[in-house]
Every structure is written in structure tokens, then in C-alpha cells.
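Tutorial handout. Part one gives the primary structure; part two gives the three-dimensional structure as C-alpha cells.
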Amino acid sequence: MKTTIDKPLAEKKIGYNILRWIVELHIRSNYKFHVVNAEKADNSSPTLFVGNHSNSAIDPLIILFSLKRKVYFIARGDVFKGWKAKVFNYFNMIPIFRREEGPENMSKNEESFAAIFAKLNNRGAVTIYSEGNCLQAAHVRKFRKGTARICAEFELLNTTNIPLNIQVAGLSYYTWDKFRSDVYLQFGNAFTMHDIDFSKANNYAERIHVFNARVESELQNVVLQIPEEFQPTHFLLDEIIGTLPQYAGINKYNIRKSIGEALYAMKPNELTTLKQHLDSYGTELLSANLKHQNTLTKVKEYNLLHVIWLLLTVPVFVLGLVLNAVPFFIPSNIAKNKIKVVEFKASVRIILAFFISIIYFLILSIITFVTWNWIVGILVFPVSYGMGLLAYEWYKLYEKIMGRKRWLSNAYIILNNSKNHALQSIATIFEPYFNTALTGNIK
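Part two.
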């Protein structure tokens, strides 16, 4: 049962709202957002949003920018130190301390729980990641106890007549740290504690187990899940299925969803055979410096007009590259070479790029303002940023056309037989599981 009220809460801090708008522009430039079932998102009731956690600081931002309300975020407590605690509090973050961060800090959670209950009693929204830590995984992991405890205690402390809505928010990244990658956010149906059947739970521990089982199941339904053994190669698998003629025109989301469902339904021997084909084909592509997306089926639509267009717009690419080289390449190199934890690479790259872009373009604007014209100085920031995005799209088209050239070379001839064999084998394995039409458009 979902209970809603008419007027959602909005953020009243002016500085926060300005920064939020700028950060949202930056995040949407780095990722292509696709919100699935956006109409299900609860934008007014006291709500606990439960999400999977695979991309550090990016996950909460994507949820925030996809909702039309004020949202508080539960974050790991060990980062709330000194001046950083004030910054995190200003941006609606609430610390939760885990046992691995020091048992002596666990008592601080009582204060954090009180803050969470106060927000929910005031018709607020709180986002929690019940898996407890961040891990780049394309599947839902086992929940910890914190979410169940929050919901159970809030039932006792609820000072309103409005029950707490629990709503899952599943995040699925096509790739976590690739510029302009697709990310899908899907909302499940909101429900309350009264919708969960606790009749067979005889004690508190069993109630937690029943609660976690229900919410985990709800989250699994809105995350594009891939079995763990296929995660290193699932990007290649997505591309292969997407280029098979029988699935032409199907969007990435429905392809990934159907692939996941098929993989979980396959027999062990089929999974083994499929993985062997994928590994073999992937190795051949790598050895020839090729990508599956460069196959003729993907690039045949590019003709002489595209080549002429690329040649005529080379100055646009060069100018966009020059203007954005500093804020694009420096953060990318730092994240790639200095950050060892893969889950933090995207966050570090994007956060560094944000601050470097602000400082860099501000300096360019001031120089232009002083030496040339104040109107041009004001336009430097938006025009330079836009030129950078155009330069990226130019390069992607160039890559695809050059990929066609590589496939027409000797490497294509060498790989052609093994490629056709691999694709035919993969299609044969998947065919029984793709027996229903894949339809629908994701906005």
C-alpha cells in the first residue's frame, strides 16, 4: 500500500540549489541518464529509498537528480571528520558507523538514527545502501541489518498518521567509468512494513531476515543483474546480442535485461560453453586491437557524407579538444594512475573534473573579459563546455568509421571465420531463452 500527500518538500538553501544545478549539469554531461518507471517515484511521502551501491559518490547524485524532492543520504561515518562533517551535513548527508570502522563509534549511530527519524517524521526522504559498502557488481548483494532496524524502530516512533514508504531504486551502469556511458535508474513499487508478511517470524532476527528477503527481491527486479562469472565479459555479450539481426532495433536496456534473465535461467553446461566462446572471441579481438562494435553490421550505415562531414568539422573538434584538454585529461589520468580502488575511480575523475573545470574556465573568462570583450568573456564557459561535448561526439563517429577500415583489413579476414562461429554459437545458446518479443523504449 502506498500512501502519498500532495505537497513534496523542497530544498530551501539557495547556495545548495545553485550548486546542485551546476553539479547536475556536470553529472548529466558525464553519464546518459535513463529513468525507468519515473512515474512510480515517491516525491511527497515519508520515504526510505533503498538502492544498490556500485559507484561510490555517483550513485546518490543520480538518485537525487532523478527525484523532484529534498533527499537526505546515509553515508559512511568515518569520513565525517573536522570541517568535512560540516560540509557533508550542509549537503544533507547523515553518518552511519559500521563495525569495521571501529566498535567504539557504534554508539554514535543512536544520534544518526534520531536524525533519520526526525527527517522521516517531517515527511522527508532518506536514501540508504543496504549492502553496506560499495562494490562494482552487476547484481544485488546481501543486505546488512541497518535498513530493517531503521524501518522497525520508525514504526514505533512515527508521530504522524502517514506510514513510511519503502521504495527500491536500482542503478545499472553500462560501464562505471566511461565518459557518456548509459546509466539506468529504475524505481520499484512503494510498500510499507504492513505489506510484509512477518507471520512466520518468531523473533527479531527472523523479522530482519524476512524484511531483507522482501526488499532484496524488490531490488533484484529493478537492477539489470548479470551472474558474477560473466561480469568481466558482459559488455562484450551486450554488444554481440545487440548486433544480431534478430534483435536489431532493440534498446540497450531491454537487451541487457533479457540477457540477465537468460543467463540466470541457463543450465550449467550452457553457461560453460557460452563463457568459452566469449573468452575466446574476446581474446582474438584484443590481440588484433579490434572491438566487436566495429563489425560491418554496426558501421555499414556510415557513408561518404559522414566522412565529408567529419573533414569539414575538424576545426570544431580541434577547438573543443584544445579548450577542454586540461579539465578532461588531467582528472582522467589521475583517476587511472593514482586511484587503486576501482569503485572510486569514476567519483575521483568526475569530482576533480568539476573543480578543475570551474577554475580553468573562470580563468579563461577573466582573461577574455580583460583582453577582449566582456560579452565574449561571459560566453567562454558555456561555449567551451559545449564545444567539448561536440568534440567528443566527433571523435566517437571517427572511431566507428576507422573501426570499419580496420575490419576491412587483414585482421578482419583472419577473424571472420572465428567471429561468425562465435556469434552463431552464442545466438544458438540464447535463442530458447529469447522466445518473447523484446519491445519498449527507454527515455
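Part three, for discussion. The beta strands are 31-36, 47-51, 72-76, 93-96, 125-129, 165-173, 181-187. The first strand starts at residue 31 and ends at 36.
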